[in-house]
Automatic annotation (TrEMBL):
Membrane topology per record: Peripheral membrane protein
Originating organism: Junco hyemalis (Dark-eyed junco)
A GO CC term attached to the entry: Golgi apparatus
Pfam family for this entry, one: zf-RING_Vps41
GO BP annotation list: cellular response to starvation; endosomal vesicle fusion; macroautophagy; protein targeting to vacuole
Name by which UniProt lists this protein: Vacuolar protein sorting-associated protein 41 homolog
Superkingdom of the organism of origin: Eukaryota
Disordered, as annotated region: 1-30
Keyword annotations of the record: Autophagy, Cytoplasm, Cytoplasmic vesicle, Endosome, Golgi apparatus, Lysosome, Membrane, Metal-binding, Protein transport, Transport, Zinc, Zinc-finger
InterPro entries: Beta-prop_Vps41, Clathrin_H-chain/VPS_repeat, TPR-like_helical_dom_sf, Vps41, Vps41/Vps8, WD40/YVTN_repeat-like_dom_sf, WD40_repeat_dom_sf, Znf_RING
Length: 854
């Protein structure tokens, strides 16, 4: 039976999909399946006329007068033979323990499903409707109503007798009744009425809109959304009514309740059933259409719509055409819509079919997304709802997504998704890699292969590397640089690279990659040779990282040729590994590189390479004259005679002048400045540095017959030599450029010196006076003398124990105290006394300032 049910479900869904004219991109809100098992057997021999839904079971009435109790899968649990003719209505109380049934032959039965309680009545006309009290299970609510030409209320009274009373009559057959709480709603040929069972008053009358429709062919559909909200569907009109309490001031003779229509709208088709869905409505519609073949109006498939009510219209949320069996022969009255309030299950009943509609869950949502090939959204939905989905697995969806992307040719995206979907599953990773290999897209997945946790088999990585090596050297080099060396068999890859280099031995990319492979394999010597051949920037990093200094002792020239600055820094930083002598020896045939090394060594430490300072003189003279003079000035180890010889040979005047002056031959140095450079300013500067009167005299004698030199001397000599000495030696009649300006400058300099001296004198006098006053104020202050003070000579208390005796005390500014008689007699004429302790050698702060006598 279960297998048959599954087949029914699949066939119904397939027929529904095939019947859609257009494939909508909007996801349906409901899913459908046929109620099968026992229902299938029943409807093969009989036809459904009505059905009532309880949360525990279903009750199905047929045209042959049978009532079947079914479970929610459609299996028959109980059968009642009620009448030989059509069952018009089945009613259940809220407990599901009592059932009311009426049939076309006028029979009405109300009985307990689990008790012997039973009521039978036969009327002389067909009874279309019956409704038991929702709380019928309670003894004081033993009531039910029937609808034929009259609305009759049956109440069980004294001695368990049933007493009928007419609630309404005279407006045609009553075809629908819905009882909720204390309110009964019913529909007759004129409209819909609502009765308040507490006051026994009718509180409203909602007239029928389209009176042209036959009420027996297009019956009214009623549905209570809650205890105070009634939904009415009739023809193509839908009304939502709210029962409200009337204010006490408005009552007068009116019922204490009234009804307000809060929503009203028309539908495109005829309403066959209504049900609430949260704040929305589910509407079962009967559809007629014009046949394209015969051009005659015929019955179409019914529709189940979900709409959002608005004050004067509605918004369609979803609309599904239902392929029920025999829909071509059905009328509007043949369809019914029942629902289970707690589970949002909707049952569409037709004579030959019962279809169950239910809200789609997350599994259904994912199914729809997969069907529409929206794998990304399906994967996201599965991840969000992974605790609630039962049918789908995230991994299965992800694998389907990868396959879909590969079929579309989006190989890079498919490879990128592998990282997230495959995670740490090495078997799946390897399976997917082989799939990429089969379609020739190993390059696409190479960037996303796991490198740590998990690690795949070495063969996988080697396979990818061989793919790149055959077609893309740059890509191969990138992978070697990015991938850890332990992912693959390094020996195999090295051999493959060597084989390719035999075909193209000068390929720099392959050589660089081979060097990296040698590094991974700890064959640093070979890697270093390749890096040096390529002049690769990583050579220094390789040497430092792996301490390859022993391997570069004979490669110093190569390193210097590649990058002399980095090479020298490296060599100097590692003197303990490669000595200075070894470096100088290696560079013997490349003096320009030797100079670069020794120059930087000298900059770092003036003394480390002192044995090469003599050699450096020639190197500086040859390759770096601007730094020769600074070298001569800073070096204390270079031989001056050798340096002087080289400088004189090359006619380096400035360097020769410096060396002559350093060797004490200042007069020769000055002469060279005057004769070779003819630079009076430099000569004056030199004379100032030496601060030798004889040099100044030589400078004046040399300049006396050279007017430009005299001008220079006049402008600069004033602070070192008396200008009068120079002026007296100037020959009369000699024309001296700018003599006037020079004399004015001399006078100004002299005046400036006088002003400076006067200013300094004023400052000195003012400071001396200020300090004198401060000293005077300090010395005028009193000094405390008490019993604790002692005489610095006799070391006895300075004050006598008997205060009545006369005493004399001398206190010095240094705070040393003496008895008058303890002080030595001064041999000087001056009466000023000095502290013996503080003025042993010269006068100081210990001059006497105070004498106490008594």
């Amino acid at each position: 039976m279960a297998e048959a049910g599954e087949k029914e479900t699949r066939s119904y869904e397939e027929s529904t999909d095939e019947s859609e004219e257009d494939e909508s991109e909007e996801e349906p809100k409901l899913k459908y399946e046929r109620l099968s098992n026992g229902v299938t057997e029943i409807l093969q021999k009989d036809a459904a006329s009505c059905m009532t839904v309880h949360e525990k079971f279903l009750a199905l009435g047929t045209h042959y007068g049978k009532v079947y109790l079914l479970d929610v899968q459609g299996n028959i649990t109980q059968k009642f033979d009620v009448s030989p003719v059509k069952i018009n209505q089945i009613s259940l109380d809220e407990s599901g323990e009592h059932m009311g049934v009426c049939s076309e032959d006028g029979k009405v039965q109300v009985f307990g499903l689990y008790s012997a309680e039973e009521f039978h009545e036969t009327f002389d006309c067909p009874i279309k409707i019956v409704a038991v009290h929702p709380q019928f299970v309670r003894s004081h609510f033993k009531q039910f109503v029937t609808g034929g030409k009259k609305l009759l209320l049956y109440e069980r009274g004294w001695m368990n007798r049933w007493k009928p009373s007419v609630l309404h009559e005279g407006e045609g057959n009553i075809r629908n009744i819905k009882w909720r709480g204390h309110l009964i709603a019913w529909a007759n040929n004129m409209g819909v009425k609502i009765l308040d069972m507490i006051s026994k008053q009718r509180i409203t009358n909602v007239p029928r809109d389209d009176i042209s429709l036959r009420p027996d062919m297009y019956p009214c559909s009623l549905c209570w959304k809650d205890n105070l909200t009634l939904i009415i569907g009739w023809g193509n009109s839908v009304k939502i009514c709210s029962v409200k309490e009337r204010h006490a001031s408005e009552m007068r003779d009116l019922p204490n309740r009234y009804v307000e229509i809060v929503f009203q709208f028309d539908t495109e088709f005829y309403v066959s059933g209504l049900a609430p869905l949260c704040d929305q409505l589910v509407i079962l519609s009967y559809v007629k259409e014009i046949s394209e073949k015969t051009e005659v109006e015929c019955c179409a498939r019914p529709r189940l719509d979900i709409v959002q009510p608005l004050p004067e219209s509605c918004e369609e949320i979803s609309s599904d055409a239902l392929t029920v069996r025999g829909f071509q022969e059905n009328e509007c009255r043949d369809y019914h819509l029942e629902y289970s309030e707690g589970e949002s299950l909707f049952y569409i009943i037709s004579p030959r079919d019962v279809v169950v509609a239910k809200e789609r869950d997350q599994d259904d949502h994912i199914d729809w997304l997969l069907e529409k090939k929206k794998y990304e959204e399906a994967l996201m939905a599965a991840e969000i709802s992974q605790k609630t989905i039962k049918k789908h697995k995230i991994l299965d969806i992800g694998l389907a997504y990868i396959n879909h992307l590969m079929e579309k040719g989006e190989y890079d995206l498919a490879a990128r998704k592998c990282q997230k979907i495959l995670g740490k599953n090495t078997e799946l990773w390897e399976f997917e890699v082989y799939k990429f290999k089969e379609i020739g897209q190993l390059k696409a997945i190479s960037r996303y292969l796991p490198r740590r946790d998990p690690v795949l088999k070495p063969l996988i990585y080697e396979m990818v590397l061989h793919e790149f090596l055959e077609s893309d050297y740059e890509g191969f080099a990138t992978l070697i640089k990015e991938w850890p060396g332990d992912l693959y068999n390094n020996t195999i890859i090295v051999q493959a690279v060597v084989d390719h280099l035999k075909k193209d031995p000068q390929n720099r990319t392959l050589l660089r990659t081979l060097a990296e492979l040698y590094t991974y394999d700890q064959r640093y010597g070979r890697a270093l040779e390749i890096y040096l051949t390529l002049r690769h920037k990583d050579v220094f990093q390789l040497i430092h990282k792996h301490n390859l200094f022993s391997s570069i002792r004979d490669k110093i020239v190569l390193l210097m040729d590649f990058d002399s600055e980095k090479a020298v820094d490296m060599l100097l930083d590692n003197e303990d590994k490669i000595s200075i002598d070894r470096v100088v020896e290696e560079l013997e045939n490349r003096p320009e590189l030797q100079h670069v090394y020794l120059h930087k060594l000298f900059k770092r430490d003036h003394h480390k390479g002192q044995r090469y300072h003599e050699k450096q003189i020639s190197l500086y003279a040859e390759y770096d004259r601007p730094n020769l003079l600074p070298f001569l000035r800073d070096s204390t180890h270079c031989p001056l005679e050798k340096a002087l010889e080289i400088c004189q040979q090359r006619n380096f005047v400035e360097e020769t002048v410096y060396l002559l002056s350093r060797m004490g031959n200042s007069r020769s140095a000055l002469k060279m400045i005057m004769e070779e450079l003819q630079d009076v300013d430099k000569a004056i500067e030199f004379a100032k540095e030496q601060d030798d009167g004889e040099l100044w005299e030589d400078l004046i004698l040399y300049s006396i017959d050279k007017p430009p030199f005299i001008t220079g001397l006049l402008n600069n000599i004033g602070t070192h030599v008396d200008p009068i000495l120079l002026i007296h030696r100037i020959k009369e009649g000699m024309e001296i450029p700018n003599l006037r300006d020079s004399l004015v400058k001399i006078l100004q300099d002299y005046n400036l010196q006088i002003l400076l001296r006067e200013g300094c004198k004023k400052i000195l006098v003012a400071d001396s006076l200020s300090l004198l006053k401060k000293m005077h104020r300090t010395q005028m202050k009193g000094v405390l003398v008490d019993e604790e003070n002692i005489c610095e000579s006799c070391l006895s208390p300075i004050l006598p124990s008997d205060a009545s005796k006369a005493f004399s005390v001398v206190v010095f500014h240094c705070r040393h105290m003496f008895h008058r008689e303890c002080l030595p007699v001064s041999n000087t004429v001056s009466s000023v006394q000095f502290c013996n302790i503080c003025s042993a050698k010269h006068r100081g702060p210990g001059s006497a300032v105070l004498e106490m006598k008594k």
